[in-house]
């Protein structure tokens, strides 16, 4: 339980910071929390994508293979899933967030 709290604390602190420091055009807290929740649930499709790609990018002894595995097997799927979640939230309700970075940070 302590590990879960330690994992969630930085993201919740950033959400709280954004909500408190934004003096003009505050975003509704429900959209910030929705982004956070979708970010937490977004690990599920990324897990399956990375398990599938692990067969193609098995880590070898060479540094180039390790770099390719890290980029194509881990970073690219995570960022693409994050982008599509961001696009889904922002396109369904474009007035929910007035700054794109405020939507991206909680993810």
- Total number of helices: 5
Q: Radius of gyration over alpha carbons?
A: 17 Å
Inertia-based shape: elongated
Give the CA-CA distance, first to last residue. Answer: 22 Å
What's the number of extended β-strand segments? 0
β-sheet strand percentage:
under 5%
What share of residues is helical? over 70%
Structural class: mainly alpha
| Mean pLDDT across every amino acid position | 76
The stretches of 5 or more residues where confidence is low (pLDDT under 50) are none
Q: Outline the biggest β-sheet.
A: none
| SSE run | HHHHH
Number of domains: 1
Can you give a write-up of this model?
The chain is mostly helical and 107 residues long. It contains 5 helices and no strands. The protein has helices at residues 2-21, 29-41, 43-53, 63-92, 100-104. The two termini are 22 Å apart. The mean pLDDT is 76.
List keywords for this structure.
107 residues, mainly alpha, 74% helix
Protein topology:
Blueprint: H1 2-21, H2 29-41, H3 43-53, H4 63-92, H5 100-104
Helix pairs in contact: 1-2, 3-4
Describe the structure concisely.
74% of the residues lie in helices and 0% in strands. The protein is mostly helical.
């Amino acid at each position: 339980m302590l590990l879960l709290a330690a994992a969630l604390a930085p993201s919740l602190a950033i959400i709280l910071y954004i909500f408190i420091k934004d003096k003009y055009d505050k975003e509704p807290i429900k959209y910030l929390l929705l982004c956070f929740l979708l970010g937490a649930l977004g690990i599920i499709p990324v897990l399956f994508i990375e398990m599938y790609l692990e067969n193609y990018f098995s880590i070898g002894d060479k540094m180039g293979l390790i770099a390719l595995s890290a980029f194509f097997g881990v970073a690219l799927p995570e960022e693409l899933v994050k982008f599509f979640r961001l696009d889904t939230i922002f396109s369904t309700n474009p007035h929910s967030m007035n700054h794109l970075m405020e939507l991206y940070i909680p993810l």
